[in-house]
Amino acid sequence: MPIPATQLYRLTAELPSAIATLAVSGPEAVQRVLQRLELRTQTLEIDKVYYGLWHASTAEHSAAEQVVVCRTGPQTVELHCHGGQAICQALIGDFARLGCPLAEARGWTSQACPLALEAERQLLNASTDKVAGILLDQMQGALANSIRRTSRLLQQENLPEAEQALEEMLTWNELGLHLNQPWRIVLAGPPNTGKSSLTNAIVGAQRVIVHDTPGTTRDWVEVQVALDGWPVSITDTAGIRDSADDIEQQGISRAAQRVRESDCVVFVVDSQVGWTAAHASFLALAPPRRLVAWNKSDLQSTERESSDLQRAPASLATLADWSADARTPEERAIPVIPTSCLGEPGIGGLLDAISQSLIPVSPRVGEAVPMHPAIIGSLEAARLQVRAQTPSAALKCCERALRAEACE
């Protein structure tokens, strides 16, 4: 028996709910919906929402059902109705009589763009509105359309524009990998510099034990927060110092590992002590994104120090301006932000500096953002093939990216 060209799919679970969603897909989708739908118009424009009444064809359900309808594509219409089982079954039966039988849900997902499906999968775990907005753009075709455009350029052997298009997409590869994996921020420094107090101030709650006894934190403590709309994890680590205590040594070793794995390290400096050899000892482990929190700045009193506290984040001083103990060019170039957990200048400048360090520019609405390592790998491979003047090989890489191969 041949499979009907136009079929019905149930997109919501087969359980009682407030709302149920059905989708009709195929060349006769619009015609079949309009056969039973009472609207003020007899046309369904794409991406426009309509409110109407569905008139069932059976005596058991003579009353009209209120529905919200949206034509989401040339051959696809979605209907949203009350989620009761009786109503859903009545509509499903009605569509079957119209020649649109209910199909398995997996048939619906097989029609969808793999990139849109991956974006939808990640959207389910999105923790902030900003992340959700980017993933919604990808669901609606931002990334797929950009890759298709690049493929057309490759077919035309327009390599300069194809490379530019790939560069624009890959600009956001690091951001794309952190849409659902938080950026890792590590606070590091000697004992009693105020790392735990800073962590609590950032989180806005007493999550880490604070005490004036050096070495209170023996292991790393991680908390999840949103910073300027981006998901980040803040890790408070054990104080860096020479110690004969085996447990403390293990804590310092674990702190070193967290620094190696981080996206940004904030070296916390006690303003009354300054930059030390302990800070410098971890510098080689740190990623390129590094900041110094000149902490307990409310305790400083000299005229120069007081004026330095008024520096705006846009004109950050570097460690060379703050400490004569910063010996190497690498140390001297680290930006410094005055902080205090108890008074002025607070921690706002530090939060701004961290956010600016991680994401200096946000993608525009509708920007193509690759959001999975496999997709990014395919696009990077395409760029290499373009630079090697092999457009056919680059085209295959783009096709692989469109299929979202290896995405889990």
From TrEMBL:
| Keyword annotations of the record | Hydrolase
One GO cellular component this record assigns the protein to is: cytosol
Q: Supply the EC number(s).
A: 3.6.5.-
GO molecular function annotations of the record = GTP binding; hydrolase activity
Q: Name one GO biological process term.
A: tRNA methylation
Database matches in InterPro entries = G_TrmE, GTP-bd, GTP-bd_TrmE_N, MnmE_dom2, P-loop_NTPase, Small_GTP-bd, TrmE/GcvT-like
Task: Enumerate the spans annotated as G domain.
Answer: 184-286
Top-level taxon of the source organism: Bacteria
Question: Does Ion transport count among this protein's keywords?
Answer: no
* Segments forming domain GTP-binding protein TrmE N-terminal: 12-112
Q: How would you classify this enzyme at the top EC level?
A: hydrolase
Q: Which segment of the chain is annotated as a signal peptide? A: none
Name assigned to this protein: tRNA modification GTPase MnmE
Q: What species is this protein from?
A: Aureliella helgolandensis
